[in-house]
From TrEMBL:
The keyword rRNA-binding does not apply. Coiled coil: none annotated. Belongs to the methyltransferase superfamily. RsmH family. This is Ribosomal RNA small subunit methyltransferase H. GO terms for biological process: rRNA base methylation. Its EC number is 2.1.1.199. InterPro entries: RsmH, SAM-dep_MeTrfase_MraW_recog, SAM-dependent_MTases_sf. NCBIfam families: 16S rRNA (cytosine(1402)-N(4))-methyltransferase RsmH.
Length: 363
């Protein structure tokens, strides 16, 4: 990610500060976004959005961009999954307004933008400022808005843009390869940096603090509910025992602790896979935000005949999407069964294997 230095906006990526692309952030709202969800799913509120093109807010964008010493934004290495299937489901047309609620590296957004053309409007949201910078390399134009916000804040985003409803909404709930490659946030098992696991490091509580603060029962609940981890109790007990001697601060630290707790019981995968998933979901309030979106936003902000498509990567997400899409009073199901990547895509991109696409049309 870019390192922005000093007060001169010339150090900032041009399309992140000035038109044609508008970047909007929730500032204080995203600093504590949906912190009430936790395990009980309470709804959060958010403050008004602010435009980062304002000179008074340039220092905020500087701080977003300061985690790397590189003078140039690297290219995204992420391969968007189910591209052909997503385009078939959304069927974007010239002049339409489409929301990519998880813009990521901009792969899906770029293909959608080609189809809606100059007369359409593309709104790309992401909680991760690094991903927005990568997306800005692929999608540009007067009709493009890249916005630093969660898709759970869609009502505020559209209100700020003066848009009542849209023609299509896409969510890709997977972890980006670019995020996995970021060794400073602990998404990979061998990452040497802090065990953070947050998409937006200015909001919420990092995973290492959760491991330090929560008691054994609370940790076991997170691992069981968010990771469907069979050995949740054993792992939680080992974490509590270990932290008495030394803090668990990095991905490597956590991987070692989990491996010691379950190695004799499991050999089919990296033992810490489900624990990392659970902590990431907890740190980012992922399921709570998805529930809010499915209960209200998808229906409220899609036009009649508009389409929604969601790609999930684990059973907890897919179960929520599946149940919401069953509502025959609100939606017409476009995918009676989840669409999965073809064999050729799975071979080319092994990380796509667990992807499932479901789509609906608003009635």
């Amino acid at each position: 990610m870019d390192a922005a230095r000093g007060d001169d906006s010339s150090n900032l990526p041009r399309n992140l500060v000035f038109k044609p692309i508008g970047i909007i952030a929730t500032l204080a709202a995203l600093r504590n976004i949906c912190s009430g969800f936790s395990l009980v799913g309470r709804i959060c509120s958010a403050a008004p959005l602010h435009d980062l093109r304002s000179p008074a807010l340039l220092p905020i964008l500087h701080s977003m961009s300061s985690s790397s010493s590189s003078d140039s934004t690297p290219l995204s290495v992420h391969l968007p999954v189910l591209m052909r299937e997503v385009l078939r489901a959304l069927d974007p047309q010239p002049g339409q307004i489409i929301v990519d609620g998880t813009a990521g590296g901009g792969g899906h957004s770029r293909e959608i933008l080609k189809r809606i053309g100059d007369t359409g409007t593309l709104i790309g949201l992401d909680r991760d400022p690094m991903m927005l910078q990568l997306a800005a390399q692929k999608v540009q134009g007067d009709n493009v808005h890249l916005i630093h916000a969660s898709y759970a804040l869609l009502p505020q985003v559209l209100q700020d843009l003066g848009i009542a409803q849209v023609d299509g909404i896409l969510l890709d709930l997977g972890l980006s390869s670019d995020q996995l490659a970021d060794r400073q946030r602990g998404f990979g098992f061998a990452a040497e940096g802090p065990l953070d696991l947050r998409f937006d490091t200015s909001a919420g509580e990092p995973a290492w603090q959760l491991l330090e603060r929560l008691n054994e029962e609370e940790l076991a609940t997170i691992f069981k509910e968010f990771g469907e981890e069979r050995f949740a109790s054993q792992i939680a007990a080992r974490i509590v025992e270990t932290r008495k001697r030394k803090p668990i601060l990095t991905a490597q630290d956590l991987t070692a602790v989990v491996t010691a707790a379950v190695t004799s019981k499991r050999s089919d995968r990296q033992p810490a896979t489900r624990v990392f998933q659970a902590l990431r979901i907890a740190a980012n309030e992922e399921l709570g935000q998805l529930e809010v979106f499915l209960k209200s936003h998808l229906q409220d902000f899609l036009k009649t005949g508009g389409r929604g498509a969601i790609i999930s990567f684990h059973s907890l997400e897919d179960r929520l999407v599946k149940n919401a899409f069953r509502d025959k009073h609100r939606f017409r199901l476009l995918t009676p069964k989840p669409v999965i990547p073809a064999a050729v895509e799975q071979r080319a991109n092994p990380r796509s294997r667990s992807a499932k696409l479901r789509a609906v049309e608003r009635l």
